[in-house]
Structure formats: structure tokens, C-alpha cells
Amino acid sequence: xxxxxxxxxxxxxxxxxxxxxxxxxxxxxxxxxxxxxxxxxxxxxxxxxxxxxxxxxxxxxxxxxxxxxxxxxxxxxxxxxxxxxxxxxxxxxxxxxxxxxxxxxxxxxxxxxxxxxxxxxxxxxxxxxxxxxxxxxxxxxxxxxxxxxxxxxxxxxxxxxxxxxxxxxxxxxxxxxxxxxxxxxxxxxxxxxxxxxxxxxxxxxxxxxxxxxxxxxxxxxxxxxxxxxxxxxxxxxxxxxxxxxxxxxxxxxxxxxxxxxxxxxxxxxxxxxxxxxxxxxxxxxxxxxxxxxxxxxxxxxxxxxxxxxxxxxxxxxxxxxxxxxxxxxxxxxxxxxxxxxxxxxxxxxxxxxxxxxxxxxxxxxxxxxxxxxxxxxxxxxxxxxxxxxxxxxxxxxxxxxxxxxxxxxxxxxxxxxxxxxxxxxxxxxxxxxxxxxxxxxxxxxxxxxxxxxxxxxxxxxxxxxxxxxxxxxxxxxxxxxxxxxxxxxxxxxxxxxxxxxxxxxxxxxxxxxxxxxxxxxxxxxxxxxxxxxxxxxxxxxxxxxxxxxxxxxxxxxxxxxxxxxxxxxxxxxxxxxxxxxxxxxxxxxxxxxxxxxxxxxxxxxxxxxxxxxxxxxxxxxx
Length: 622
What we know:
Elements: E1 7-12, E2 17-22, H1 25-31, H2 34-45, E3 59-62, E4 77-82, E5 89-94, H3 98-104, E6 109-113, E7 120-125, E8 128-133, H4 142-153, E9 159-162, H5 165-168, E10 177-178, H6 189-195, E11 198-204, H7 214-230, H8 235-240, H9 244-248, H10 266-272, H11 274-280, E12 298-301, E13 308-311, H12 315-320, H13 330-343, H14 347-362, H15 381-393, H16 397-401, H17 405-412, E14 422-423, E15 426-427, H18 437-445, H19 484-501, H20 513-524, H21 530-550, H22 580-591, H23 601-606, H24 610-617
Parallel strand pairs: 1-6, 7-11
Antiparallel strand pairs: 1-2, 3-4, 3-6, 4-5, 7-8, 9-10, 9-11, 12-13, 14-15
Helix pairs in contact: 1-2, 2-19, 2-21, 7-20, 13-15, 18-19, 18-22, 19-21, 19-22, 20-21, 21-24
């Protein structure tokens, strides 16, 4: 199969058996790989009623047809799983190098099932798989364990995806860490590996796989790489990384401040921004595999309580653990980011949980003794760091906050639910729906909850004819709700394609669907067009939603947190809130969903998902 390794590796930790299966060619064509393939596999094998932390739950690691090629950033991988944080189907993405080695080792997907009796790790290398003891690694932080495995096997080029102490303790905010601080951060996937006693997956591969039209494919990749390195559209990203958002979107009110209570904090944003980082603690660093953008950061703090040398914080972390908590100490937030990497916890959810804790403390629902003697006050960097430790260790107040804000609010009671900012149990990402109305809809109907990476629709607001190849023409102004249903639907479809091929999200800033179609056609030999890729994206999104419908998700769950529908008094979004009802009605209609939020039978059948139609609606009457 051109563009693919052609095999799936299945590891059953209960029986200690590793088996290979051929990749289904129809699945490759209809779902590409990555998220699409993973959603299809989990839909087929994991009943919606499955306990996420039971041996019966499965987690699949997937790559795509552009992985381990000359395509820029062609080493991303996706994971798909039923989330212990949200109770619904979730996927997550990570960069670095790990994905390229999995594919070169001979596999398009790795399915993990069952649970080991004692801690183990996997060693996958060029078509061979070993299940090795990991008792000696249990308890090590996620950065140290990568070095330990490389020394143990004797190859510093081995790539490792692993969990830290938080995953071992099944903290619901825990995540997998790979390649020195890269992470598929969301949904509690680290807890799944912890429940399975799987500490790490080490991969090394130098195998080859066919590309349909190698000359044309490499020419396309070369052009994209050059554009990625020179385009003005991503110039700020190249120079300042994602932290440039803090410098450039302050006035618009896109940066969440004090648990979404304030519309602007100019001084704090500048103190945490990309320019300040470059002037102070940024040092030369390595980009992800084949990437000519290099948005990732590496920082070095020479002295003081926050002394460190390691991966730097991205925008989402700077906002979640910085502005959300009224902390503008860049060194402190960088240190907290390093702690999150070592414990193996999601920086977005961790920051949101700490900000929630600060507000609950302010309002008397949390006492000093509950927090282990910590005064959880706004702006206190030491308190934020103490809570990061407590969440990572699953102790004291961290036991509560580490379950996520939805569960924390349920236990604290009072009015804490009003400032627990999440959708479907997933803490909200760091873009304000009162600035970009489409973001509110994206959060509300997002396949995994409040996520900015399943349709970053703000890219298309205030842009003339943002996606004409898919019929998105005209202007979609800020602070206007009408018309955002179609914009969000197409944005999510586009992202589903990107996450399935598997491409870096930031390449979408400079590419069109027809560009992706040309790349995929040259790689696989399947004739893709902009129109046919839209159908692929629709299919993936519909199947993901159908699974969540079977988990009980309906219209009642497609809502924003109350805090995000309260207008701020200052900044670029002052006095503004989206009309969610208008946007939801539009979205449901253009997506082919029923008024109750289910994917309609007609839509499912038109996308070739007759099995999902039967599962949702029963056998079709003759």
C-alpha cells in the first residue's frame, strides 16, 4: 500500500501476546490514518459502555500517509481512546520524532489492550516487539525514564513515549510525554497507561515504505517546507513561537485572565509573551522532525528557585498557568511547565484546575488546611507550583483538582459549578469565545470537549472568502453569530483531515484542501480532490459524534460554561457574548444532525456509516 507501512501491531498486556494484522485498505482510503483510523478502530472494538480505566478499554496510537516522509513535521502521531476524564471518545496529537520511528518500525497503528499484572514497557524495533519489565522505571519522571530506557537498550536515538508519576497514580489530568516534553496532552490518556501498568513505549525503526509518485511527492514537500520557512503568515510563529499570541492578541481580548473574569491584562501578557521569552530565557533549540517552522521553545533559567534547562512553555501553558492565575512571572510558569512534563500532566487542564481552585479558595469553598497549608491566592506563583506538585503526586488538594474541574465542582458544591470552565468535562482551551464567537461553537460541539485543535475557526473570522474550495465565501465578522455554523463545521472537517494524514496543525495556516489532496494523491496513488477530502473529514467527524451519542451525548451537552457567557467589562470583547442558540441551530443543520444533537440516519448512511446508523437508530425498516 503506497504511503503506508501496511500493518497494525496489536499488543495484549493481559496475555502478553503481540500480533500483526494487515491494514484494511478501505479504512486507509476512507479515513486516511491518524485520528480517522483510530476513531474507526475504537468504534469497532470498544463498546461505549466500557469503563475507561478497565482492562477492556483500548488505546490506539496511529500515524498517517505523510508520516516519516519529507513532508514538513512528518512525525506527528495521534492517540484515540475512551477518556477517563470526560467519559467520551477522545483523540490527542503530539509532535516530535516518535511517530516517524513507529512507522519506520513497520506499523501504521499500535493497539494496546488488556492490562499487565506488573509494570512493563514495550520495545518495538524494525518489526520486532518485546514486553519488558518496568518495575525499576516505575516512579521515575517522564523525562528521566526516556534517558533510562535509552541507556538500558544502548541506543540514544530510541524514541520513547511514556507516563510520569501522575499517570501511574491514574490522575485524570495525566498524559503521555514523548521526545523531551512533547505530549498528546488532553483527556487523561496517561491514566489509561497507568491502569494498564504500561510505563513506556520505546520505538526505533529504519525501514522503508513505498510512495506512489516519489518525485512529485518530494517536489510538493519541498515547496511546502520552503513556504513554511518564509511565509509572512507564520513569521511571528517562527520567531516567537506560539507565545506570540500573548503579544499580538491582547487588545482583542482573546487571552483568558483570572479564570475568564477579566477581558484584558496588558502588563501580564507582555511579561509572559514571546518577545519577553526571546529577550530573556530562550536558547537555541531543535524543531520537530522535518519542520522548517520551529515553533517549539527551549528555555534556560540560570539561577534562583526556578532554575531549569528544558522545553519551554507554549502559549496554552503560559495562559493556563499564567494569566488564568494572575501570574506574570515567566520563570515561574516555565518551571511549572517543566514540572508538568516530569509528572506527565496536561498543562491546559492543570492550569484551569488551579485557577478554579484559586477562585474556590477566594470564595471560601476551599480552606488553607484543605490545600496542605497553601494559601491559594491569585497571583501567587509559589501556590501555583505547590498545586502542580499536589496534582502530580495525587495528594492533598491535588487529589480533588486532579480529577478535573467538573468533578471538583460536583464535590465542592455551592456555586462552584458556575466557574468550573469546561465542556463535557474537558477544561477549556485558552481562546475566548467572547472574542471569536466561532470558538464558542467549536468548544460546545467539539468531539472531545472544549478544544481549540478540532477546528481553529478564528483563523477564518474577519477574512474575505476564507475557504472558497469548500464553498466558504464572503466575510465572517467578529462578534457576529450568524453564519458561524457553516464556518465551524468546515473548520472541524478540515482539522479532521489534517489530524488523519497526520500533519502539523500550523501548516493549515498556509495550505488549502487542494494542497493536501495533491500531497495525499502523490503519496498513496488514490485520487483525492478538495471535494473528496471534505467527505473524508465529514465521515470522521460523524463517526466520532455517533460514538459520543452512544455514550449519551446530546444537545444538552453542547453548552459553554456559564462563565464564558458572562460579558467582561474591559478589553476588546467588553460587553460581548455569542448567541449560542443561533450558532447551534446552523451547525446542526449544515452538519446533518437532528435537533437533539444526534447525527441523522440519512447523514450516516450518505457517508457509508450504515453500522453507526443501525447502532443509533436500530435496523432500517423495509
